[in-house]
Amino acid sequence: MKMYTPISEIMTKKVITLNHTDELETAERLFKTHKIRHIPVVDGKAIVGMLSYTDLLRISFADAVNDDDDTVEALVYNMFTIEQVMAKKLISVPPTATVREVAQILAIREFHALPVLEGRTIVGIVTTTDLIRYMLKEEAEA
C-alpha cells in the first residue's frame, strides 16, 4: 500500500461548508441532502470549526422520538447555535500530508474527519471513509 501518497489524491475536493451564523436546521438539511457526516464551519474564508452529524444527534431528541415530527427538532435546534455545538479545537493538514500521517492523526486523536488547508484556505476534507476506500482500492490493485 502506498502510505506516502499525498492526501490531496484521496481527499474530497468539493467541500460543503456552513457559515458560523447558519441555523442548525440548515446543517441538518445539508447532512441529509449530501449524505455526509462532517461539515467545516467558516467565517468568511477562515475555518472556525467542524460540525458532525453526531453533534446534531447529541442535542436532538427528534430522531429518537418520531422521524416525522419536525416541530420537536426545530424547537431543540432553536435553543443552540452552530458555534455552540461545533468542535472548535481543530487539527488540519496540508494537501501534501501523506495518507500515513493522516491515518495516524485520525487514529490517535479519534477524529473522523480533518480539514485540508492550503494556508488558511480550505481545499478539501479527508475522512476515515476516504482512507478506507483508498485502502480497499490499493488492495484490489495489488
UniProtKB/TrEMBL annotation:
Keywords: CBS domain. Residues 11-68, 86-141 form the CBS domain. SMART domains: CBS (SM00116). Pfam families: CBS. PANTHER family: CBS DOMAIN-CONTAINING PROTEIN, CBS DOMAIN-CONTAINING PROTEIN CBSX3, MITOCHONDRIAL. This is CBS domain-containing protein.
